[in-house]
Automatic annotation (TrEMBL):
This is DNA-binding transcriptional regulator, MerR family. It holds the Pfam family MerR_1. SUPFAM superfamilies: Putative DNA-binding domain (SSF46955). PROSITE patterns: HTH_MERR_2. It comes from Streptomyces atratus. CDD domains: HTH_MerR-like (cd00592).
Length: 247
């Protein structure tokens, strides 16, 4: 195979191959009398391995170490490993396509590639014009990136279509621009805290820098009166967790 042919086969550029030759990552094959390099199947196997390793985020020095560990192995062994790598990639692609199908079929936009469990929960939430409901959705998407399990979404599912919860959002919306000593704050905070199921508290990690930083960021994301409500809710939920721990 010539350089253009092996490049097309493996899915890299001829320029990349020349660079691999230059840094000593891929041995440069011999040339025919016409000056063209001639690449073998083993060259293609090594080049494909280099591509996969770099796609996984390895630097070229790290790739060189991995290749050195595989030196001297039989071609069929290397091919079998590459086939296993492709099988894992194929499985990953299928999973990503399943997640994409959920996004396409549900209300979650392409800009919000969430986990299947959260996509299922958001799919049950009715459309609303509440700014606070929209903000809660954003916070759930953010929380999803921290790797919380599906238990929290299962615990939240009964609230998704509860009219009382939507009324709470409307009360929170109404505090936009209000003072931090507004008399509506204490009863709303109490009602919101009471609406959070115990299953949600059990599923959310209560400590660690990620959750601490997230809690602080949440408060900064609200208007002052709304932030006061959220602060009171967080304090009430923390008290509930502590009470359960000592009970």
């Amino acid at each position: 195979m010539r350089i253009g042919e092996i490049a097309a086969l493996v899915g890299v550029t001829s320029r990349a191959i020349r660079h691999y030759h230059h840094v000593g990552l891929l041995p440069e094959p011999g040339r025919r009398s016409n000056g063209y390099r001639v690449y073998s199947v083993r060259d293609a196997v090594v080049l494909a391995r280099i591509r996969r390793l770099t796609e996984l985020g390895l630097g070229l020095d790290e790739v060189r170490d991995v290749l050195a560990d595989a030196a001297g192995r039989e071609l069929m062994d290397v091919l079998a490993e590459l086939d296993a790598d492709l099988a894992r990639q194929e499985s990953g692609i299928r999973e990503r396509r399943r997640r994409l199908a959920r996004l396409l079929d549900g209300p979650v936009s392409a800009e919000e590639p969430v986990s299947p469990a959260l996509a299922e929960l958001l799919g049950t939430v009715p459309t609303t014009g509440s700014p606070m409901a929209a903000k809660d959705r954003e916070h759930l998407v953010l929380l999803d990136t921290t790797g919380v399990g599906g238990e929290i979404y299962a615990a939240l599912a009964p609230l998704a279509e509860d009219p009382a919860v939507h009324a709470l959002y409307e009360r929170l919306d109404a505090l936009d621009g209000a003072a931090v000593d507004d008399p509506r704050i204490p009863p709303l905070a109490a009602d919101l805290a009471a609406a959070v199921p115990d299953g949600v508290l059990a599923a959310i990690p209560s400590d660690g820098p990620v959750m601490t930083g997230l809690g602080e960021a949440l408060l900064d994301d609200y208007a002052p009166a709304q932030a006061e409500v959220v602060r009171r809710v967080m304090a009430a939920l923390a008290a509930r967790v502590a009470e359960r721990g000592t009970g």
